[in-house]
From TrEMBL:
Matches recorded under PANTHER family: FORMYLGLYCINE-GENERATING ENZYME (PTHR23150:SF19), SULFATASE MODIFYING FACTOR 1, 2 (PTHR23150)
Name of protein: Sulfatase-modifying factor 1
Organism placement in taxonomy: Eukaryota, Metazoa, Spiralia, Lophotrochozoa, Mollusca
Gene3D superfamilies linked to this entry: paralog of FGE (formylglycine-generating enzyme)
GO CC list: endoplasmic reticulum
Length: 376
């Protein structure tokens, strides 16, 4: 049976609005899921896992295998490229999570709630292709996109040859196409490679892949609260890590979509697709780069949109769910489409989903031992 028609039905729903993964119709009230919502950005395209589960072959064996061997591995191996796995200390403190002026109400951006977060460490950069390759070289880890044999790419970035083979598009977000052979090593399809972009963020990594990598690095994913706290720095109630202006000092501070989405990308910020993880100024006083923009970043939390206004200490999100929270927006975000390159903004995907604009960075309670001995 060809799985795509059903996948597409589900994707259409997901694309159109923040709906339940398994629902074929939007579950949140039709008014929030209009069929032609021009603001829909395809942020939440997800795999329909039930189709793959039926075939019974989707055990994450590689994750388990690597976990057993983790202790024998030395993550800080010698390389001939500059490492970007350094972490910054995020001192504990409190902040207002979310916003009372949500742009996407259905995303659960609000209400604002008082949250305390313990001190932790966060990767200064998004995980790069080079860092991810070290992990794969050491463990033979196979990502979920490789296991499935496909991943989501925006058609603009796909070659004519690859485009010819694509028979489906996502209704309401026709630029999203499932591409056979797209994975972290082939971000734009089988005829692309990461050779020239080893210092760019790794893409097409599912939440499960991200967890596996972070564990191997003796790190973990940040919670949504940690991520947002780190994003906001010491700024209260601002849109971006540095404040409210998009381009302070007439400079570009992030990699987003300039021009007219999805038809023209003027790359005003210098990048039509991803930028190196080290690009752009530090986004706030913590010294973090590309929290906002470049690649979306997975967090450890399950997705939910109802938040109580009670104050919380180190919240970890709902106990269960269908989707995981991702933060920060990507190089595909434009103000008119997917205006989610804000600290309070959020979106979601199923834990086995992967896409050309989705990566991650890791967190840790303690600075890993190998980093004590290296320059940050
Ligand atoms: C991974 O292994 C390949 C093949 O041995 C090698 O060419 C490449 O440099 C390695 N990658 C890293 C990041 O060390
Ligand atoms: Ca850009
Ligand atoms: Ca980012």
């Amino acid at each position: 049976m060809d799985p795509w028609p059903r996948i597409l039905q589900v994707m259409i729903c997901l694309v159109l609005a923040r709906c339940d993964v398994s629902a074929e119709k939007c579950s949140k009230g039709e008014s929030e899921c209009p069929n032609d919502d021009p603001k829909s950005c395809g942020c939440s395209i997800s795999r329909d896992t039930s189709i793959y589960k039926q075939s019974g072959d989707l055990k994450l064996e590689s994750v388990d295998r690597y976990r057993q061997t983790k202790d024998k591995l030395t993550p800080a191996s010698k390389t001939d490229f500059p490492r970007t796995h350094g972490m910054v200390n995020i001192p504990g403190g409190s902040f207002f999570m979310g916003t009372n002026e949500p742009i996407f109400v259905a995303d659960g951006e609000g209400p604002e709630r008082f949250v305390r977060v313990n001190a932790f460490y966060l990767d200064k950069y998004e995980v790069s292709n080079a860092e991810f390759e070290l992990f794969v070289n050491a463990t033979n880890y196979k990502t979920e996109a490789e296991t499935f044999g496909n991943s989501f790419v925006m058609d603009t970035y796909v070659s004519e040859d690859v485009k010819k083979k694509i028979k489906q598009a996502v209704q309401g977000a026709p630029w999203w196409v499932p591409v056979d052979g797209a994975d972290w090593k082939h971000p734009y399809g089988e005829d692309s490679s990461t050779k020239e972009i080893m210092d760019h963020p790794v893409l097409h990594t599912s939440w499960n892949d991200a967890v596996a990598y972070c564990e191997w690095m003796t790190k973990r994913l940040p919670t949504e609260a940690e991520w947002e706290y780190a994003c906001r720095g010491d700024k209260v109630g601002r849109l971006f890590p540095w404040g409210n202006k998009v381009n302070p000092k007439e400079e570009h501070w992030m990699n987003i979509w300039h021009g007219e989405f999805p038809n023209s990308n003027t790359a005003d910020d210098g990048y039509e697709t991803t930028a190196p993880v080290t690009a752009f100024p530090k986004q706030n006083k913590f010294g973090l780069k590309n929290m906002i923009g470049n690649a979306w970043e997975w967090t450890s939390d399950w997705w939910g949109t109802q938040h109580s206004t009670e104050s919380k200490d180190n919240p970890m999100g709902p106990d269960r769910g269908a989707d995981k929270v991702k933060k920060g927006g990507s190089f595909m975000c434009h103000e008119t489409y997917c205006y989610r390159y804000r600290c309070a903004a959020r979106s979601q995907n199923t834990p086995d989903s992967s896409a050309v604009n989705l990566g991650f960075r890791c967190a840790s309670n303690k600075l890993p031992k190998y980093l004590h001995m290296e320059d940050p």
